[in-house]
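Request:
Um, any thoughts?
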Amino acid sequence: MGIPKTGFSLIELMVVVAIIGILASIAYPSYLEQVRRSRRADATGALMGLAGAMERYYTEEGNYLGAATNADGVANTGSPRFFPDKSPLDGPDAFYKLEIHDASSDTYTLHAIPVGAQDGDKCGTLTLTQTGTRDMKGAGDDPPTISVCW
């Protein structure tokens, strides 16, 4: 009687490695897309929160003009003065930059601009107006529908 041989052969090990590689090549891109979608959902929520803050500002001031200030001091475009200027609203990382554009006495457009790891998102810049109109800008040649991005 000899000593029984136990363990895996090199062929068996290579088959297992190949199977794991195939599964990973399918699962990882799907995982990344889910992460992008969750970041985008957070940005849409932040835009809705900023819209609510804009309406409170309008109630107090009677217009939207002073709600933001850009780097040059122009008061109708740029980062909000009374709301976080990034999404997620808390935490060190920013995946979207929140900005107010074209504010006037009775209109505004809010932008969520993808930055950092979210830069190059297929939905581009998400926009929201004072009437609740949702849109996307810079979504590329084959943009997804509004319902996919919002």
Remarks:
- Strands lie at 68-69, 79-80, 86-87, 96-101, 109-114, 125-129, 134-137.
- The mean pLDDT is 88.
- The longest strand covers residues 96-101.
